[in-house]
TrEMBL record:
Residues 174-236 form the S1 motif domain. GO terms for molecular function: nucleic acid binding. This is S1 RNA binding domain protein. Pfam families: CvfB_1st, CvfB_2nd, S1_2, WHD_CvfB.
């Protein structure tokens, strides 16, 4: 929101129009007049209310006789203050902001480009805290005021995210993509890729549930008619086979070169010990035997000694 200083009066003595601002609000960009100078800065006014522009919040010299454009925010004491530094987001705009702190009883703090960080309330975060953003994650946010007039950052809704999407084509099938999780639900995780594609990650297509705001790498496993994509975070079979083989071989070495598991073991035993399907386990063993690293005998698997 941008407002200019000064008053406009109609013939009935009432102010009208939007060339003035009678209630200064945090989270907005306004143009105010310099009321007077103080030892630590300047007091600015819209003609009715005053707000402090501290010397540390000025970015350039300005003429006190001319209006000055500032962003309004709340300082560490909760007082309304002004800065000539312009933030990444306002009440009327959205942008990507970085998470710089986590308070489990409050929410997460994001940097909007000012000296003071802004809180994303726990009310606007997933109910399950282990998928909350961590430091370094990024959220697409705007600013809002609560009923008490306090300034918060709020992640974008699905309707807002739709404005950012571009459509994928069948040529994107099996393509590697990098995306950021913008919504975490029980059904799965929603991401926006670097290309702008709306992606969905089903729980079956990931080993661990990614955090809100986390950057993930995967591949497109389906392109929908609306241009959105399904994404898998699981490795391709060849890559997964190498990972599984290394996992099985490490376990074998930890046991001194012998383990009571083979391709005859029950699937439940394999799942419990290695967190993989029996099919994946057999492929891993097959790779190790082909490389002549292991052999099987009477339900056991042994390391081939050189």
């Amino acid at each position: 929101m941008r407002a200019k200083s000064g008053k406009v009066w109609n013939k009935y003595g009432k102010k009208e129009g939007f060339s003035y601002m009678s209630d200064l609000q945090a989270g907005t960009i306004v143009t105010l007049d310099v009321k007077n100078e103080a030892p630590f800065g300047w007091f600015l006014t819209d003609g009715e209310e005053s707000v402090l522009l501290h010397q540390s919040e000025t970015t350039e010299a300005f003429d006190p006789n001319e209006p000055v454009e500032v962003f309004l925010y709340q300082d560490h004491q909760g007082r309304l203050a002004a800065t000539m530094n312009m933030p990444v987001i306002t009440q009327d705009t959205y942008g990507w902001v970085e998470v710089v702190g986590v308070k489990r009883e409050l929410g997460v703090f994001v940097s909007i480009g000012l000296t003071k960080d802004v809180l994303v309330s726990e009310d606007d975060l997933p109910l399950i805290q282990f998928v909350w953003p961590d430091v370094g994650d990024r959220l697409y946010c705007t600013l809002k005021l609560d009923r008490k007039g306090r300034l918060f950052a709020k992640p974008a809704t699905e309707d807002i995210m739709e404005e950012q999407f571009t459509k994928a084509t069948r040529k994107d099938f099996n393509k590697g993509v990098i995306g950021t999780v913008y919504r975490a639900t029980k059904a799965g995780s929603f991401v926006i890729t670097e290309e702008g594609y709306r992606g969905f990650i089903h729980p079956s297509q990931r080993k661990d549930e990614p955090r809100l705001g986390q950057k993930v790498e995967g591949r497109v496993i389906d392109v929908k008619e609306d241009g959105s994509v399904n994404v898998s975070l699981l490795a391709r079979r060849q890559e997964a086979q190498v990972d599984d083989a290394e996992k099985v071989y490490r376990y074998l070495l930890q046991r001194g070169g012998a383990m009571p598991y083979s391709d005859k073991s029950f699937p439940e035993e394999i799942e419990k010990r290695f967190s993989m399907s029996k099919g994946a386990f057999k492929r891993a063993l097959g790779k190790l035997m082909k490389e002549k690293k292991v052999y099987q005998e009477e339900g056991w698997t042994y390391q081939v000694k050189e």
